[in-house]
Specification:
Blueprint (H helix, E strand, L loop, with lengths): L2 E3 L2 E3 L1 H6 L3 H13 L8 H4 L4 H11 L4 H8 L3 H15 L4 H9 L16
Antiparallel strand pairs: 1-2
Helix pairs in contact: 4-6, 4-7, 5-6
Amino acid sequence: MLWSVGTRAVSPVFVGRAGGLSALKDALGRADAAGPAAPADPAEALGLTSRERDVLRLVSDGRTNRQIAEELFISPKTASVHVSNILAKLGVSGRGEAAAVAHRPALFPVCGRTTRSTR
């Protein structure tokens, strides 16, 4: 059995061993005061699943649904559904916009290109 406390699920065993509910509240209060931790993966902040990240990487490389399907061993229809879900989650209307959103926080390194230095 787990209790949901905000965005955390807490086992009653933890509550019993940690000195009761007040200790649990203190621990959660300290964690909330520090603020939410930034996701280690920038794509995680976009709410994409790992498969959607794979598809977005291929979309940003300019691949078609058929090419995405072949690379990921899925059907073209499944690739199309993933692309539609990605567009909806990113709030964009096309593949080009999705690729731009993916490259903005440098989710995927640009292969074969060097970055310019600023003077």
